[in-house]
């Protein structure tokens, strides 16, 4: 039977990449890194440990089957540095082979792998020497990346060096929320500087390893908006968004082939001399209390126009255990992505966070970000209703 041609209101560009995103520590299980050490101190809100997580270390072929079931043509995952280089200078062949298998499994299924090199977890030897505060840290990172490029360079074209440098350094070195729980503005700034250096070195290593690779970062950008149209608020909005959205990108812009955008947050800023507060309307929120504000993805995309680079949306999603908001969330955000494309932003792909329910950092397993729910005892994956909505969009390249 010939397929019925659907009339699409929002048609995406040919070759558009549709995918989901995950990270190693959140899904693999069995890791030994600075985060697993920290978990043992009872820091996780729901009392859990990452433990076996989704057991994706073993079940990666099953995961790719799900990606396929979603009619996706890309999958963003990350490499666990602590597995690849468990001791400084010693590389684990089995771990490297396992990641090569994962990339092959993607390719075999017509899925473009997008590979993140650093999604926040550190090998113990790295953490013990001060992690990103050590001035050698960018060089250590380069050594790891050079080795990875040699092993995976033939299978991987799209590389994301660092996931959300600001969210990470802010929570780990300024807010004291994540390991190593520092609270220092200077450490925060120093870590940002070293992450930028690490990115630059990685950029050149990756390009040495393969001629046609493309390298970017995943940047958490937020839509800052002034409370009412008050001049003081507007000024603060300008400063805050210049710092949060553009300072890191500005530092590394000469070594970016694309920008990865992670969009989650909208902030209506009400400023006073003592700082600012966020005054969101919060008409719609996720299970984590994060405001759902689809227009923000359009605004953050339009703000990226100035860099004149291709953009991949590398994360966007919500915790929604009952799955009663996710389908609308996806459609609404994509409507705005489509509008940004119409208005000239070169958006090449969209990765939903996340494929699976997984280990949500200091919040444990409670938040449910997955298009597939996971039974954390049997590791069985079950599609939520929104998964088929997303699968249709990907299959039709629009909706
Ligand atoms: C992103 N916050 O992180 C990460 O890249 C993912 O690993 C994560 O699972 C996902 O978003 C959902 O949270 C963030 O507390 C984690 O503001 C926390 C915050 C922001 C982003």
UniProtKB/TrEMBL annotation:
Active site residues according to the UniProt entry: 315 (nucleophile)
Transmembrane helix in keyword set: no
Key words, A-Z: Glycosidase, Hydrolase
Recorded superkingdom: Bacteria
Any GO MF annotation of the entry: beta-glucosidase activity
UniProt-listed Pfam families: Glyco_hydro_1
An individual GO BP term: carbohydrate metabolic process
Family that this chain belongs to: Belongs to the glycosyl hydrolase 1 family.
Full protein name: Beta-glucosidase
Source organism per UniProt: Candidatus Falkowbacteria bacterium RIFOXYA2_FULL_47_9
Organism lineage string: Bacteria, Candidatus Falkowiibacteriota
């Amino acid at each position: 039977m010939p397929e019925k041609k659907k009339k699409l209101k929002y048609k995406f560009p040919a070759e558009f990449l549709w995918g989901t995103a995950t990270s190693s520590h959140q899904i693999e299980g069995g890791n030994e890194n600075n985060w697993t050490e920290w978990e043992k101190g009872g820091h996780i809100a729901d009392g859990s440990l990452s433990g076996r997580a989704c057991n994706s270390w073993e079940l990666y072929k099953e995961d790719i089957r799900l990606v396929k079931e979603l009619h996706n043509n890309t999958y963003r995952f990350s490499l666990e540095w602590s597995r690849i280089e468990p001791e400084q200078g010693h590389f684990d062949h089995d771990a490297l082979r396992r990641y090569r298998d994962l990339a092959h499994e993607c390719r075999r299924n017509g899925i473009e792998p997008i590979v993140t090199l650093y999604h926040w977890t550190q090998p113990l030897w790295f953490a013990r020497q001060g992690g990103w505060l050590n001035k050698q840290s960018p060089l250590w990172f380069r050594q790891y990346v050079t080795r990875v490029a040699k092993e995976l360079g033939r299978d991987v074209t799209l590389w994301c060096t660092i996931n959300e440098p600001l969210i990470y350094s802010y929570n780990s070195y300024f807010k004291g929320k994540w390991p190593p729980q520092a609270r220092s503005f200077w450490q925060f700034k120093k870590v940002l500087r070293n992450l930028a250096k690490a990115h630059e070195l990685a950029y050149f290593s990756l390009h040495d390893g393969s001629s046609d690779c493309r390298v970017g970062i995943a940047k958490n950008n937020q839509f800052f908006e002034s409370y009412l149209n008050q001049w003081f608020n507007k000024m603060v909005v300008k400063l805050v968004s210049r710092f949060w959205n553009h300072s890191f990108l500005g530092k590394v812009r000469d070594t970016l082939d694309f920008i990865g955008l992670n969009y989650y947050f909208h902030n209506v800023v009400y400023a006073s001399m003592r700082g600012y507060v966020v005054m969101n309307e919060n008409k719609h929120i996720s299970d984590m209390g994060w405001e759902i504000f689809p227009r923000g993805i359009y605004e953050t995309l339009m703000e990226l126009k100035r860099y004149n680079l291709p953009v991949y949306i590398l994360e966007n999603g919500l915790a929604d255990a009952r799955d009663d908001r996710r389908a609308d969330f996806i459609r609404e955000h994509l409507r705005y992505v489509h509008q940004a494309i119409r208005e000239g932003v070169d958006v090449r792909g969209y990765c939903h966070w996340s494929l699976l329910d997984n280990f949500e950092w200091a919040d444990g397993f409670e938040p449910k970000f997955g298009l597939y729910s996971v039974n954390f005892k049997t590791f069985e994956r079950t599609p939520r209703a929104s998964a088929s909505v997303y699968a249709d969009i990907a299959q039709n390249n629009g909706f």
